[in-house]
Write a structure and sequence with these properties.
Blueprint (H helix, E strand, L loop, with lengths): L8 E6 L6 H18 L5 E3 L8 H13 L4 E6 L5 H10 L4 E6 L14 H14 L11 E2 L1 H22 L1 E6 L14 H5 L3 E5 L1 H10 L6 H12 L9 H18 L5 E5 L6 H5 L4 H9 L4 E2 L4 H14 L3 E9 L2 H7 L11 E6 L8 E8 L1 H4 L8 E8 L2 E10 L5 E10 L9 E6 L3 H10 L6 E5 L4 H10 L7 E3 L15
Parallel strand pairs: 1-2, 1-3, 3-4, 4-5, 6-7, 6-8, 8-9, 13-16, 15-18
Antiparallel strand pairs: 10-11, 10-17, 11-16, 12-13, 14-15, 14-17, 15-16
């Protein structure tokens, strides 16, 4: 992944001046030792300049971690800690921050060796709220050196997503297609999140594409496509145009990302794209997504924003799918019932025309876009990538701004079942516990669009924390609730 941040966490220990400073010094050293035993030492930095006891120390520590190139911060309460100085440190640090506290080590050292950091976390959280500072606090933020080392490691993907958003530009082409208002949403919340957006005309993109005709790099890109597709290269005649389009997008990114480090694209793919460009862009979209540059279909801006968050967290390709169709009863009975622990309402098919990275498909093949070919000449609908999505754990999720400018999100962990879809497109049989209720009382009730981002693995914990950190209110972060937990809109009488 070459389009996501690398996180370096500065660890700053704090101490209340009526406690022995040695508690924080020794506990910080033990924490760093445990972390470097188990994890990448380059992902942390131990601030040695001081233990923060005062505002002056806070300034010194802040300058030190900035100089060391830290883009995330861990405030470590080695003892009770100075609530004002430690929260000022978080306030003035420009990046994601976490607060954790040291546990007591032994019953044999509870006089001079008792640090009271358990109590100090309460004061820290109160002061964070007073100063309107959003900080990551683990579910149980108190532990010994090994515990806290694990907490910091778990913070890395969360920090990576928050940093990425702060330096992201979304480049879009064209308006959302007609009858796809669900993919439209106000961009104000993008600016609130620190995301820049550049909206372009399809005509600008078409001009740039034409200017790339005969580009000397095209043969090399075609060769790379041939290698990736292998026996699935069913449309070799279209590869040159697809390579031309890929180079167009990559050059556009370089020429338009400006001061931003990371880029995502919300692209137009119909209704005029096929007839003018002479192909569909699905395969190119999948290739860029496989490199860590998410590309959404149908100019779904919040869809690609969600994809980018998933890419930062998982450090892997993601995809964007329609929450598309039910699983027929005969397929459920034949391939799922009594084989997997899911009801028929727990399963559905996630589908899109062909935008999923080839590495996430079983037997990927280049084909024409069947839906578009129903009303257009087949030769202008070539360029989609089809195949069943690989079985395994997934997380379905989305961050969305509502029409009245409220940030809302959902997260649901599940899996892709090893069941042949017997259909077309990039598609899979998905299973999520209590999906039927989640579909009705979250996706429909909360007015989510039909596109959902898919990360390959279980990342619900990290996504939930990211959504909290970027300002989504707790009651606007939705998930698939267990049967015993009723949704607010759910009829209690069934």
């Amino acid at each position: 992944m070459n389009n996501i941040p690398k996180v370096k966490v500065g660890i700053v220990a704090v101490s209340r001046d009526c406690f022995p400073e040695s508690l924080s010094v020794n506990r910080r050293k033990a924490l760093v030792e445990e972390y470097t035993k188990k994890y990448d030492a380059d992902s942390i930095y131990e601030c040695p300049i001081c233990i923060v006891e005062s505002e002056i120390h806070m300034v010194q520590a802040l300058e030190d971690v900035k100089k060391a190139g830290c883009n995330a911060l861990c405030v470590y309460l080695g003892n009770f800690g100075p609530e004002i100085s430690e929260t000022l440190l978080a306030k003035h640090f420009d990046g994601p921050k976490m607060f954790v506290a040291a546990a007591e080590e032994s019953q044999n050292d509870l006089i001079q060796g008792r640090g009271d950091a358990y109590c100090g976390m309460l004061n820290a959280s109160y002061n964070l709220k007073l100063r309107n500072i959003r900080a990551y606090i683990p579910e149980y933020p108190v532990g010994d050196a090994k515990d806290v080392a694990d907490m910091i490691y778990e913070f890395l993907p969360i920090a990576r997503a928050v940093i990425g958003l702060s330096e992201l530009k979304i480049i879009s082409f064209g308006p959302r297609p007609t009858n796809f208002l669900a993919c439209n949403a106000p961009i104000k919340q993008l600016y609130n999140l620190g995301v820049e957006i550049e909206e372009n005309s399809e005509l600008d993109l078409f001009e740039s594409f034409n200017n790339h005709a005969g580009d000397s790099r095209i043969p090399d890109v075609v060769a790379d496509m041939e290698k990736e597709l292998g026996s699935g290269n069913n449309k070799p005649e279209i590869l040159e145009k697809l390579a031309q389009y890929e180079l167009t997008l990559l050059d556009w990114i370089e020429n338009h990302k400006g001061y931003r480090k990371y880029v995502a694209i919300a692209g137009k793919c119909w209704p005029a794209f096929q007839t003018q460009f002479g192909f569909v862009p699905c395969y190119v979209n999948s290739r860029l997504t496989g490199r860590g540059i998410p590309v959404s279909c149908e100019v779904d801006i919040y869809g690609v924003l969600s994809e980018f968050i998933g890419t930062c967290i998982s450090e892997d390709a993601v995809t964007l799918l329609d929450i598309n169709n039910s699983v027929p009863k005969d397929m459920y009975e034949e391939a799922i019932n009594n084989k997997f622990d899911y009801t028929q309402r727990d399963v559905f098919m996630g589908f899109h025309c062909g935008n999923t990275y080839s590495g996430k498909l079983v037997d990927a093949k280049m084909k024409n876009q069947m839906i578009m070919a129903r009303s257009l000449p087949e030769e202008v609908t070539n360029g989609t990538l089809e195949g069943d999505i690989i079985p395994g754990d997934i997380t379905f999720f989305r961050l969305q701004s509502t029409a009245d400018n409220i940030l809302r999100a959902y997260v649901a962990e599940g899996e892709v079942l090893p069941v042949a879809t017997k259909s077309f497109g990039s598609i899979g049989v998905f299973a999520i516990k209590e999906m039927g209720r989640f579909y009705r009382h979250v996706l429909i009730e909360k007015n989510y669009p039909h596109h959902g981002a898919v990360a390959f693995g279980h990342f619900g914990k990290e996504l939930y924390e990211v959504f909290k950190l970027i300002g989504v209110e707790y009651d606007e972060i939705n998930y698939n609730q267990p049967k015993a937990m009723r949704y607010v809109s759910e009829n209690p009488y069934g």
